[in-house]
Amino acid sequence: MKDEIKWGDFDKMRPTQIEEIKKDYPIAYLPWGAIEYHGRHNPTGLDTHKTAHLCSLLAKEVGGLVFPPISLAANLIKSYPGVDFPNHSIEFSEKLIQLICEEYFEQLAEQNFKIVVLLSGHAGEPHLQILRDVARDFNNKYPNKYFWALAEFDVIPDHLLVANHSALGETSLQLYFEPETVDLHSLPKDREISLEIDAVSGEDPRSSTAEHGELIVNSFIKNATEKLGGIIKNYI
Ligand SMILES: [Zn+2]
Question: I need a labelling partner for 216 at 20 to 30 A (CA). Which of 8, 152, 165, 172 fits?
Fold first, then answer.
C-alpha cells in the first residue's frame, strides 16, 4: 500500500507542520507566473494560476511544500517586437528575475530542501532560459540537491501542448482550472485570430475546452510525477 502523501502550502502552515512534511518530503515547489496581457479572452494572471494549480496537483501526488506563486516575469508580450499591447502587464528586468531566483534557491537550500521544482508558467525568452540557467548553476553548486526549472510543455507531448500564448493550450487549461475567468465570446467570429490583434500565439483558442485542458493536466501530472520519482531516488 502506498504511504500517505504529505504535502501542504508553505505559507499556510506553522513551523511544526512544515517540518513534519519536510522530514519525509524535502521538496519545494515554486510556481513562477506573471502578470501579463493574455488577450481579451483570458485573465492577466493566467500564467500564475496555471502554474499554481499544476504545482498543487503535483505536490498532492508526490509530496512536499508548495510556495506562494511568484508573479514576476521578464520578456512579456508588452515588449514583443511588432505588437502593441502596452497595458495590463507588469514587466520586470531580466537581471531582477535572475536575482530573485538565486535568492529563493539559496534560501531553500539553506532550509534543507533537497529538491526544488520551479514551474514557470511564462515561456517568454530569455525569461525561461534565465530560470533554467540559475537551476543549472545551483545543481553545480549543490551536487547533493536537485533544482529542476521547467515549463509545463517540457513534459507534455506536442500533440497535447506546445509553448503558446493565450492560444488553444493555455485557454483550455484556464477553462479547466477557472472557467469563470475565461470569455471565449470576446474572440472574433468572422476572421482569423492573430498575434497583432488578439495577442494569441499558437493554435486557434476558439476551440478551447475544459476537457482538452484536463487531458493536458493529466499528461503533465503523470509525466512530471514519473520524472520526479527518478529525481527522488537519486537525491532523497
Ligand atoms: Zn501565458
Answer: 8
**Rounded distance from Cα 169 to ligand 1 centre (Å):** 9
Domain ranges of the chain: 7-235
- Taking the C-alpha atoms of residue 109 and residue 67, their distance in angstroms, rounded to an integer, is 14
* DSSP bridge pairs for 118: 30, 149
Tell me, in angstroms, the distance from the centre of ligand 1 to residue 214's CA.
17
Which tens digit of pLDDT belongs to each residue from 134-154? Answer: 999 999 999 999 999 999 999
For residue 59, with 0-12 CB atoms within 10 Å meaning exposed, 13-18 middle and 19 or more buried, which class applies?
buried
User: For the domain 7-235, what is the CATH code?
Assistant: 3.40.50.10310
- List Cβ neighbours of 118 (8 Å cut-off, separation of 6 or more): 30, 32, 101, 131, 135, 147, 148, 149, 150
Measured in Å, residue 183 CA sits from the centre of ligand 1 at 16
Tell me, rounded to whole angstroms, the distance of Cα 169 from its chain centroid.
13
